[in-house]
């Protein structure tokens, strides 16, 4: 909502029509004679060769899946194989027009894209470049294998073997694969050739590729980004969100407005390999209404995303289209959309019995086979002879057979040995690095020096404790609060790391819905700090793509409840790519989510357990200004994805614990280190998030009224978590209640209670008790005391489950009978 | 050359497919592309087309057969062609079958172990106490039996143990250990007894460690349990054995003529006990914690010194026997116990026990009750005493009796009444015989 753009009621109501331009449909009409002027014989033979390699590679996989043997070599591959037999011309045509600076993302059906872009890259790079890439990759392991077992003096031939071997070893889950076998068929990638991760979630690459384009745009990097998908992915919200996100007006209208960093639209091509089916659902005619996929472009921006429909069975038509789109994108006119019509002759997977299509249809497409047709055209046009093609075929079959033998040889291509090295996967779940700037070669682009940033000035004038020297509460306007604790390290990082970008809904002028980013707009240029559309999938997914390319992002979902809208992006993408890439990728993302209250069932949920359940995410939840600052500093300095929980109940809180107030200057709080906020000896109360303050009230009552001394520990982090301090406390007190605002069932409190019971069993004087909210929807604010844990709930729980307090009368029912009843009813 | 057609694998999770229908039969001519048969997985159905032309020479499966993936289904070739090499060989089944059996046996063994474990873990009388409170009690020997649980659901928690300690309610280490053994985990600690014995013997310069025999272990456990879990005390009395001795003398004389066995003083005491107990049900009973079990019959336990240690065989229904029958029965079981051939059934079931140290000159002692019985009678030696009869000092033979009883089960007076009546009966043995 920039003030610079006036929403004028007069203009808004002016009558008129929206007009559309024509969307070209299979308009490529060049003859072979014309093509011969563009392409040399070498180029033309290379196109055939590359298509043929893909075909053979996938034929081999199909034989292995269905017959457990290829060309006499037996093997059993239990993993997936989603083949694209029939789609080779589309893949080769696209790759022909791209180079290493162009990043391509794909789907679960991307073997063809990987091979095509690799072969095209090998062709375009000089020998030394190719050799250096191979030598550097994973310490030269793959290179030494192909050099030893398939020796050749021709570097480019060696490179071909290298990529085919690397891809196949990856598919067969070998440590010598591109990602040490941890990605597999649906996730193989090879960054040195601009091949970015492929995704087993349909449409998963949409927002990720968007983020890569943001990276190129915000960091002024060359090249374009391709988001490959099938037509089935067009039914996915994250893909459509990405179309819109990439098209948003601000990129061309506002991002250059500060005058300093003009650029164009996002350099992204959404490329749809349209094979008419999403698994078995027929898109055109059954599951979609667009008639032709290219029509979608018309809905997203006045340029209609430069949408076009192309014959994907003709490699020249595809090369022509992709080249023209690339030119547009490099000229700052993105995004673009291509509808490349092709056909998958093979089943969705080898178990596909093609119940959804007729043999007649399959036969017709086999008859139109792009490779056979291309060969026929070349022979007829006297480009090459049958014998020349036969020689290529023979070489490919032999090469594939040798590579398969190498890839299935357990000595040359071993699998990860989790018996010998049981923690091999543990060691790559997180990268655990500390990197001040993701690109130390560049200066950060900012609009004013740090000391002139209005927020920095404001914070400077604040009192960094909650009470003054006389013990009187500091006025809210003057008090350094949790918002400031979050803002300080974020502002610092904007000045330290040129790649840092921050976005989310209402981030810029509004300052974030809860004011954390207040008064930062004046200091940070638009392309580093902007309002995102209400597209949670695209917000988180793009951050993933941004980080994959080497940037650092801090993105925000206004409420933790909206994590569901970005479920796949948080749980499958952000969490998993570091480990699925065997540590090749880093994921420096801070995902800020705010836990609400007062706003009912869909705006008040603490979903820490969901985030903590997914391996690969770090999860923190500070509840004091000093902890917020220290943990935000640690999160931003690190290279791992952090889900950063905040609570709307306590944004206003000042520092009540550190005597000297929130320290000035930079400091980190180690993730995983809980903090004793109040010492005690009779019972331990471990808190998660904002409930800390209610626990302290309970502790006060226990002490003053009942002479029970409670120790209160704030978890601060959830993943990782060091139990040492908590166990020490339990050894002392023998009793612990773990309290949080999340609903009790399946909560982190339950998880921690189980762990503490396990680790401190002999010291416990009562079971470790988890106290959360009731297993209900969050009711209206006026009823919340019956739902969330409050001081009296905490004391009731202690009284009934841990140590009956003489003279105390409980209001809540924590009896065993009641518990069994509630669980019986599922509430 | 003939071609073997195998069952394709349609997806990795598919292990076998069912042939739904043969479209060709053995001997049929087949053209490339002809459907040979239809088959299905649990997910979908497929047609298998011929990849070569020829004649269907051999078929290995019929409609409805479930064929493992990649196994032979049929052979296509030219009539008369040698296809023997393609026909799959049936694998010998004996070896895998044996292996299977072995696996099964192993499983069974394991099962037994599990059952045992379940049984020992499934004891009643579980004391509710937090691990922390128990650790504290273990260190301080707090008398948990006196604890007032103030934790939820009647659980003893740390503060309850602290209260015991504040009140000085502690046990000795031995008592505490025994409390734990009998209250919570009876079996485990027993094997530690030899170690404890060795520790006591340690200061002696020369010693020999001898592992306890099982009988010794049982005695140790039972005696220790008896003393530590009961409220035992002993009453001592004596009676004038003159009449009894005269009676025995007459028996000795006439035994052979009357076909009687060698009836001892002990037999006579046993007889008197069996008869007297009928009037004192508290003494012919078992104390079972929350209830008493009174017996209609008297099953007399007789403490017997054997090479292996103390054994207590039982004479069942002793109250129904004549003196001669009782004597004979007692001899039989005592002999069996001494010979080591006694049936375990005869080593339990007693309702009252008699132990005799009189022959060893013991004048009085405190026999230890064989739980859950409520009494044990110790028979002491005969001593010469003086009593005044009509102002005259008269010497007589007195036999001592020591009755230990469980004060939990009965009080002193009833026990004393039993002992008194027993003495009276023995003093007037002739009258007893007439009853």
Give the total of domains of chain A.
Answer: 3
What fold name stands as the CATH topology of the largest domain in chain A? Rossmann fold
Q: Assembly type of the shown chains?
A: heterodimer
Mean pLDDT over all positions of chain A: 95
Q: Give me the CATH superfamily of the largest domain in chain B.
A: Chloramphenicol acetyltransferase-like domain
- Which fold name corresponds to the CATH topology of the largest domain in chain B? Chloramphenicol Acetyltransferase
Structural class of chain A: alpha/beta
- Counting H and I runs of at least 4 residues, what is the number of helices of chain A? 28
Q: N- to C-terminal separation of chain B?
A: 111 Å
In the sheet with the most strands of chain A, the strands line up as: 12-11-13-14-16-15-20
As a percent range, the share of strand residues of chain B is 15-25%
What does it look like?
The complex is a heterodimer of chains A (827) and B (435). The longest helix of chain A has 27 residues, at 41-67. Chain A starts with 8 loop residues before the first helix and ends with a helix. Chain A has three domains: 35-407, 3-Layer(aba) Sandwich (Rossmann fold), CATH 3.40.50; 450-647, Thiamin diphosphate (ThDP)-binding fold, Pyr/PP domains (Rossmann fold, 3-Layer(aba) Sandwich), CATH 3.40.50.970; 675-825, 3-Layer(aba) Sandwich (Rossmann fold). Chain A has 827 residues and is an alpha/beta fold. In chain A, helix 3 packs across helix 4 (88-96) and helix 3 runs antiparallel to helix 5. Chain A has a seven-stranded mixed beta sheet with strand order 12-11-13-14-16-15-20, sandwiched between helices. A six-stranded parallel beta sheet of chain A has the order 4-3-5-6-10-9, sandwiched between helices. Chain A has a five-stranded mixed beta sheet with strand order 17-19-18-21-22, sandwiched between helices. Chain B folds into three domains: 3-77, RNA polymerase II/Efflux pump adaptor protein, barrel-sandwich hybrid domain (OB fold (Dihydrolipoamide Acetyltransferase, E2P)), CATH 2.40.50.100; 131-211, no CATH class; 227-434, Chloramphenicol acetyltransferase-like domain (Chloramphenicol Acetyltransferase). Chain B has eleven helices and 18 strands. In chain B, the strands form five sheets. In chain B, strands 9-18-17-16-12-15 form a six-stranded mixed beta sheet. At the A-B interface, helix 3 and helix 27 of A face helix 2 of B.
């Amino acid at each position: 909502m920039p003030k610079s753009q006036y929403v004028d009621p007069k203009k808004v109501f002016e009558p008129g029509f929206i007009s559309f331009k024509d969307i070209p449909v299979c308009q490529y009409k060049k003859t072979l004679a014309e093509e011969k002027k563009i392409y040399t014989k070498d180029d033309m033979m290379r196109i055939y060769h590359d298509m043929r390699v893909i075909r053979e590679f996938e034929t081999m996989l199909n034989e292995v899946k269905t017959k457990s043997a290829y060309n006499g070599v037996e093997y059993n591959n239990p993993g997936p194989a989603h083949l694209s037999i029939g789609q080779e011309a589309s893949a080769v045509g696209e790759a022909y027009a791209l180079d290493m600076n162009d990043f391509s993302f794909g789907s679960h059906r991307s073997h063809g894209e990987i091979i095509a872009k690799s072969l095209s890259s090998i062709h375009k790079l000089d020998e030394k470049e190719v050799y250096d890439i191979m030598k550097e990759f994973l310490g030269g392991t793959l290179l030494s294998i192909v050099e030893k077992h398939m020796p050749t003096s021709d570097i480019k031939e060696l490179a071909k073997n290298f990529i085919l071997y690397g891809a196949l070893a990856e598919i067969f889950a070998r440590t010598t694969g591109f990602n040490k076998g941890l990605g597999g068929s649906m996730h193989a990638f090879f960054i040195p050739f601009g091949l970015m991760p492929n995704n087993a979630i349909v449409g998963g690459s949409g927002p990720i590729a968007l983020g890569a384009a943001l990276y190129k745009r915000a960091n002024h990097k060359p090249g374009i980004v391709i988001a490959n998908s099938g037509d089935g992915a067009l039914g996915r919200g994250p893909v459509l969100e990405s179309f819109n996100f990439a098209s948003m007006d601000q990129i061309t209208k506002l991002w250059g407005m500060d005058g300093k960093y003009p650029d164009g639209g996002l350099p992204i091509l959404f490329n749809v390999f349209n094979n008419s089916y999403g698994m078995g659902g027929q898109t055109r005619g059954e599951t979609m209404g667009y008639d032709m996929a290219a029509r979608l472009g018309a809905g997203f921006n006045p340029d209609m995303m430069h949408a076009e429909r192309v014959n994907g069975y003709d490699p020249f038509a595809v090369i022509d289209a992709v080249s023209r789109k690339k030119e547009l994108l490099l000229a700052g006119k993105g995004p673009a959309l291509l509808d490349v019509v092709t056909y998958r002759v093979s089943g969705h997977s080898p178990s596909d019995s093609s119940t959804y299509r007729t043999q007649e249809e399959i036969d017709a497409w086999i008859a139109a086979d792009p490779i056979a047709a291309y060969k026929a055209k070349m022979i007829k046009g006297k480009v090459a002879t049958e014998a020349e093609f036969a020689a290529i075929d023979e070489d490919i079959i032999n090469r594939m057979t040798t590579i398969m033998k190498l890839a299935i040889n357990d000595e040359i291509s071993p699998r990860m040995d989790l018996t010998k090295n049981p923690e091999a996967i543990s060691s790559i779940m997180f990268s655990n690095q500390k990197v001040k700037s993701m690109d130390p070669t560049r200066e950060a682009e900012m609009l004013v020096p740090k000391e002139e940033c209005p927020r920095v000035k404001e914070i400077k004038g604040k009192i960094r404790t909650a009470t003054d020297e006389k013990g009187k509460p500091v006025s809210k306007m003057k008090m350094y609060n949790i918002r400031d604790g979050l803002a300080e390290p974020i502002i610092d990082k904007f000045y330290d790391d040129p790649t840092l970008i921050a976005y989310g809904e209402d981030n810029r002028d509004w300052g974030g819905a809860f004011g954390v980013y207040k008064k930062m707009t004046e200091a940070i240029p638009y392309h580093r700090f902007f309002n995102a559309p209400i597209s949670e999938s695209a917000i988180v997914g793009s951050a993933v793509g941004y980080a994959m390319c080497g940037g650092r992002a801090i993105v925000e979902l206004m409420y933790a409840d909206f994590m569901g809208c970005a479920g796949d992006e948080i749980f499958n993408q952000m969490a998993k790519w570091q480990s699925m890439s065997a540590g090749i990728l880093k994921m420096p993302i801070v995902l800020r989510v705010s836990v609400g209250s007062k706003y009912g069932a869909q705006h008040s949920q603490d979903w820490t357990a969901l985030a903590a359940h997914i391996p690969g995410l770090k999860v923190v939840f500070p509840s004091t200004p000093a902890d917020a600052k220290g943990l935000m500093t640690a999160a931003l300095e690190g290279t791992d994805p952090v889900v950063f929980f905040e609570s709307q109940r306590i944004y206003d809180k000042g520092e009540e614990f550190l005597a000297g107030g929130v320290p000035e200057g930079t400091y980190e709080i180690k993730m995983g280190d809980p903090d004793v906020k109040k010492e005690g000896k009779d019972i331990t109360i471990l808190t998660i998030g904002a409930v800390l303050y209610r626990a302290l009230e309970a502790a006060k009552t226990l002490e003053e009224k009942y002479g029970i001394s409670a120790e209160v520990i704030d978890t601060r982090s959830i993943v990782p978590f060091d139990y040492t301090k908590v166990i020490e406390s339990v050894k002392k007190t023998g009793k612990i209640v773990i309290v949080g605002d999340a609903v009790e069932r399946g909560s982190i409190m339950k998880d921690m209670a189980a762990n503490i019971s396990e680790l401190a069993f002999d010291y416990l004087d009562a079971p470790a008790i988890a106290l959360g909210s009731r297993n209900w929807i969050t009711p209206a604010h006026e009823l919340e005391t019956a739902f969330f844990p409050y001081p009296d709930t905490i004391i009731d729980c202690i009284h009934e489950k841990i140590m009956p307090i003489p003279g105390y009368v409980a209001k809540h029912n924590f009896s065993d009978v009641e518990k069994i009843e509630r669980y019986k009813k599922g509430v | 050359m003939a071609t073997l057609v195998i069952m394709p694998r349609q997806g990795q999770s598919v292990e076998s497919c069912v042939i739904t229908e043969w479209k060709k039969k053995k001997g049929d001519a087949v053209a490339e592309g002809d459907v040979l048969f239809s088959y299905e997985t649990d997910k979908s159905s497929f047609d298998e087309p011929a990849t070569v032309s020829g004649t269907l020479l051999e078929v290995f499966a019929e409609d409805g057969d479930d064929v493992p993936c990649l196994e032979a289904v049929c052979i296509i070739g030219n009539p008369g062609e040698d296809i023997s090499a393609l026909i799959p060989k049936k694998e010998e089944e004996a070896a895998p079958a044996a292996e299977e059996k072995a696996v099964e046996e192993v499983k069974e063994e394991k099962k037994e172990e599990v059952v045992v474990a379940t049984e020992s873990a499934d004891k009643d009388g579980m004391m509710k106490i937090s691990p922390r409170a128990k650790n504290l009690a273990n260190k301080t020997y707090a008398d948990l039996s006196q604890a007032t649980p103030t934790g939820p659901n009647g659980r003893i928690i740390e503060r309850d143990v602290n209260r015991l300690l504040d009140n000085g309610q502690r046990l000795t280490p031995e008592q505490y250990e025994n409390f734990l053994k009998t209250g919570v985990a009876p079996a485990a600690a027993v094997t530690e007894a030899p170690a404890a014995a060795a520790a006591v013997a340690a200061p002696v310069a020369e010693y020999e460690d001898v592992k306890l025999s099982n009988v010794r272990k049982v005695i140790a456990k039972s005696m220790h349990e008896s003393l530590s879990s009961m409220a035992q005390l002993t009453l001592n009395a004596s009676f004038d054995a003159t009449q009894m001795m005269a009676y025995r003398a007459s028996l000795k004389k006439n035994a052979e003529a009357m076909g009687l066995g060698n009836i001892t003083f002990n037999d006579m005491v046993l007889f008197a006990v069996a008869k007297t107990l009928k009037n004192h049900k508290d003494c012919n009973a078992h104390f079972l914690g929350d209830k008493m079990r009174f017996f209609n019959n008297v099953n007399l336990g007789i403490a017997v010194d054997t090479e292996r240690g103390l054994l207590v065989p039982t004479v069942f229904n002793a109250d129904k026997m004549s003196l001669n029958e009782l004597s004979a029965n007692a001899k039989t079981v005592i002999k069996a116990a001494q010979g080591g051939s006694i049936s375990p059934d005869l080593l339990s079931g007693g309702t009252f026990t008699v132990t005799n140290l009189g022959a060893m000159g013991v004048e009085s002692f405190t026999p230890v009750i064989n739980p859950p019985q409520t009494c044990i009678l110790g028979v002491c030696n005969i001593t010469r005493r003086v009593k005044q009869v009509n102002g005259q000092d008269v010497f007589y033979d007195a036999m001592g009796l020591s009755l230990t009883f469980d004060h939990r089960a009965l009080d002193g007076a009833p026990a004393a009444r039993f002992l008194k009546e027993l003495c009276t009966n023995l003093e007037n043995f002739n009258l007893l015989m007439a009853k």
